[in-house]
Structure formats: structure tokens, C-alpha cells
Write a structure and sequence with these properties.
The strands form 3 sheets. An 8-stranded mixed beta sheet has the order 8-9-10-5-11-12-14-13, with helices on both faces. β13 and β14 form a beta hairpin. The chain is an alpha/beta fold. 30% of the residues lie in helices and 23% in strands. The chain has 2 domains: 234 residues, P-loop containing nucleotide triphosphate hydrolases (Rossmann fold, 3-Layer(aba) Sandwich), CATH 3.40.50; 92 residues, no CATH class. It comes from Halorhabdus utahensis (strain DSM 12940 / JCM 11049 / AX-2). One of its GO terms (cellular component) is plasma membrane. It is a peripheral membrane protein. It is found in: Cell membrane.
């Protein structure tokens, strides 16, 4: 029987009711200089109605993980592994999509048309760069109508829902629907794009760096709106970012990617307060904030590995202050370090003792 775990916002998220299970997702590209691995056997169970933050440096595999969830990896990339979707109500699945005996949908086994319908009607994605996501020759309202008609949905019903979404996102529907993209600010376009992704009422929303081009005030505003959207429409949200402080006050759980694989997963509170992986701790120690003590901040030495030449053993060992010979030859699996917290490290206790950090306002204390 599923257990319930309270979150920092008082919501109850089941620890066993999964909406998506990702097992060994791997993305490779064949290049002239060799095979490039940009996601490597990434496994993660995503819980229904949770907000999970996927965090890591640029080039760590975050965007490839996001693309894998909807099977939109661009050619010539090859995605392998298994991605299983568990709809809340299999009877409402789009026409042509069926479940197995366990009520599951194997995403990578769907045909082209089935995947197209899954991507909008069951799981939607907000890509990076709202500035270039809209056709500049079409008004915003036309984008909504085109999407609704393409999925044979009831136009009046869906446009009414779009207005509800606009209300939740603090947008004037009449003004925005009647505007061309260039007539809106960046924040308005980003919010309109979020509404468009939700117009067909998917269960899951994948957001890939959705606020990267916005100023800090608008970023915080959109974060607050996402909390309200999640509660009102019972969404599962995956928020993918390199900005750990931004997602700290939003997420129920955090999953940290390094060198194309997950190295730590746990409740946001536990990961931020007492991270177990040396990389997570180094990442937290390097974060600036308005009241940071400069002497306490330390950049992560070295560079992330080349996807064509990934180190043997633990991938972080060339940059890790506690790495030993075992770390150079053995790649640790994710292991339990605390209840509901796992890390891919042989020495989590030594990591906590050696790599110290302090959290400043704006990172965790104010939000959690």
C-alpha cells in the first residue's frame, strides 16, 4: 500500500504512486571523433502530483533527460532504455494508446501518431526560449486554436480552459490572445507558453530551463505561479534547471545529474540541508547569494567530462577531494544514505565531513 509523505507545502505525495518510471535511459550520438554519450543509464521514478527539480551544471544531460521523457531526442541521437507511463485513468487515454495488464504505457514502443498524442494530451513540455517558441506571424490565440484542432478537441471547451489558465498565470486573456508574440514581454510570452502546454490538460508538465532568459523578479513570479498551478490542476511537474536556488523553494524532491547520470536523489529539504554526494555538496558550496561570505564560497575545480571520453570509475573522481583508488575503478550505484535519500558515492559520511557548506537566505531557509 502506498505511503504518504508530507511536503514543505503541506501537500501529500504518494511515495509509491508513480506516474512515470525511467529505467536505464541512454542517449548516444555517433560523431566523427567517437561515440558521444549524453545520457547514460539514467533511472528515476517520478511520483504523481509531485514537483521534482532536475539539477546539474550545463552539459550534464538535463535537457537530454527531458527530451527522453517525451521521446523527442533529435536525430541522429539514439535513445534506449525503458520509459513507462502510468495514466491516472487509462479509459481517458487518447485514441490508439492502450495499456498493458499493469495499466502501463511503454512510451518507446508507441508509433509516431501515438507519441504525438501522448506528448500533448498526457505529457507536455515547455522548452527553453519562449522567445522563439511562437510563430511570429500568428497571434497567440491562433496558436491555441491550431493546437486544439490538431488534437480534435472541443474548441470552445479548451479555449474556456485556456482562459482559466490565463487567470491562474495572471494574464489578460483578451489582450494576449489578440497579440502577436513580439507585442508581449518575455515574461508574458513564457506564461502564455505554459498555458499553451496545459491547454489539453496533460497529467505531467516537463519544463526545461523555462525561466533562463528572464530577470530574477520574473523568475520568482513564475515559480510562485507554478506552485498555484500545481495545486489547482493537480499536475506532476519536472523542473529542469542549472539554478539550484531557483528550484529550492519549489521542488518536493531534487535529482542531481553529473556527467550524464544521477548522483543524488532525495527530498529537497534533506538534499539541501545535508547533501551526501561530493558533487552536490560542492555545488551548494559554490552558490552565490546576497549575503554570502566570499571566503566560504569555492568554485568546483576542474571541468565536467567530455561525453566522448567519460572517466572510468566514479565520474566525479577527477574533481573529488575524497576520491581514492576504488573511486577510479568502480562506478558506485545509487545507494541509500537516509530515508528517501540516495547517493552514488562510496563515502557519503566522509563527504559530509570534508566538504562543508552553509546555506544562506534565498537558498533554503526562507522557502522551506
Amino acid at each position: 500500500m502506498a505511503t504518504e509523505e508530507p511536503t514543505q507545502y503541506g501537500r501529500q505525495v504518494s511515495t509509491e504512486d508513480h506516474i512515470l518510471e525511467v529505467e536505464d535511459a541512454t542517449v548516444r550520438f555517433d560523431l566523427d571523433r567517437g561515440q558521444s554519450t549524453v545520457l547514460d543509464h539514467a533511472s528515476l521514478d517520478i511520483r504523481r502530483n509531485e514537483i521534482i527539480g532536475i539539477v546539474g551544471e550545463s552539459g550534464s544531460g538535463k535537457s537530454m533527460f527531458a527530451a527522453s521523457l517525451l521521446d523527442v531526442v533529435e536525430d541522429p541521437g539514439l535513445l534506449t532504455g525503458e520509459i513507462t507511463y502510468y495514466p491516472e485513468n487509462p479509459k481517458t487515454l487518447p485514441q490508439g494508446i492502450t495499456t498493458d495488464a499493469d495499466g502501463a504505457v511503454k512510451i518507446l514502443d508507441l508509433n509516431k501518431e501515438q507519441k504525438r498524442r501522448y506528448r500533448w494530451e498526457e505529457a507536455a513540455m515547455v522548452f527553453q526560449g519562449a522567445m522563439s517558441s511562437f510563430n511570429p506571424t500568428m497571434k497567440i490565440g491562433a496558436h491555441f486554436k491550431e493546437t486544439i484542432r490538431a488534437h480534435n478537441a472541443d474548441l470552445d471547451e479548451r479555449m474556456t480552459h485556456a482562459r482559466d489558465l490565463f487567470d491562474a498565470l495572471h494574464l489578460d486573456a483578451d489582450r494576449v490572445f489578440g497579440s502577436y508574440p513580439h507585442e508581449l514581454s518575455g515574461g508574458m510570452k513564457q506564461r502564455a507558453l505554459i498555458a499553451l502546454s496545459l491547454v489539453l490538460e496533460p497529467e505531467m508538465l516537463v519544463m526545461d530551463e523555462p525561466t533562463a532568459a528572464l530577470d530574477m523578479l520574473m523568475q520568482r513570479s513564475i515559480i510562485a505561479m507554478l506552485r498555484e498551478l500545481q495545486d489547482e490542476f493537480e499536475l506532476t511537474i519536472l523542473f529542469i534547471t542549472h539554478d539550484l536556488p531557483l528550484v529550492a523553494g519549489l521542488a518536493d524532491r531534487l535529482a542531481v545529474l553529473y556527467a550524464f547520470e544521477f548522483v543524488e536523489v532525495g527530498s529537497a529539504y534533506k538534499v539541501l540541508k545535508n547533501a551526501s554526494h561530493p558533487y552536490t555538496r560542492a555545488l551548494l558550496r559554490s552558490l552565490p547569494s546576497i549575503d554570502s561570505v566570499v571566503e566560504e564560497m569555492q568554485p568546483i575545480e576542474g571541468a565536467a567530462p567530455d561525453p566522448v571520453s567519460i572517466p572510468s570509475g566514479c565520474r566525479y573522481h577527477p574533481r573529488c577531494p575524497i576520491a581514492d583508488e576504488q573511486c577510479t575503478v568502480e562506478d558506485p550505484d545509487l545507494m541509500d544514505v537516509e530515508d528517501e535519500q540516495v547517493a552514488a558515492c562510496f563515502y557519503p559520511e566522509e563527504s559530509r565531513e570534508t566538504i562543508t557548506y552553509s546555506l544562506h537566505s534565498g537558498v533554503v531557509e526562507e522557502d522551506m
